[in-house]
Design brief:
Blueprint: H1 3-9, E1 32-40, E2 61-66, E3 80-88, H2 91-96, E4 103-110, H3 121-124, E5 131-132, E6 136-137, E7 140-147, E8 150-158, E9 165-173, E10 177-182
Antiparallel strand pairs: 1-9, 2-8, 2-10, 3-7, 3-9, 4-5, 4-6, 4-8
Domain Peptidase C2 calpain: 30-180
GO biological process, one term: proteolysis
GO molecular function, one term: metal ion binding
Amino acid sequence: MSYSDFIKQFSRLQICNLTPDTLMSGDVAHWKYYQFEGTWKVGSTAGGCRNFSATFSSNPQFVVRLEDVDDDPLDGKDGCTFLVGLMQKDGRQQKRLGRKLECIGFDIYKYKGQSNVHLGPDVLLRKRPVATTSFVSTREVCKRFKLPPGEYVIVPSTFEPDKNGSFLLRVFSEKHAAARYCVTVT
């Protein structure tokens, strides 16, 4: 089919990549996979984005420890490649009910000298995130990162505070990593 025929027949193209190694040819890399289910609840864990300094630290937090740098990096830079996907659960159902999807995104912070401590506003608002996404009204926000070995905390959130919702956070790492939910200390 020629390109012009394709354009006449189709107005939209969607590509589904189920895992990071699906599109690789030849050797199939076996990425490590971590999955967490969470919720944003009004009054407790629905803190909104970093713009809302009074509530941002109440969002759920997940710690990822990146241990080994990539083998033969394509860009020539040492680091640990990983992907983070944040998906709103029940998004299709919400759409059918006429409700709009929330604007979602996440920030990633260096997690130094902590031991399973839920980071508070003193840390999250004083330090800049080492990586971030845009907040988009879509079912899933997914982004690939390359960071030095170390521990990082991922803070998924809705753009505005006080928005109820359930989410799925997935982390894929090219090399060995460890990931866990960071328990809120009250």
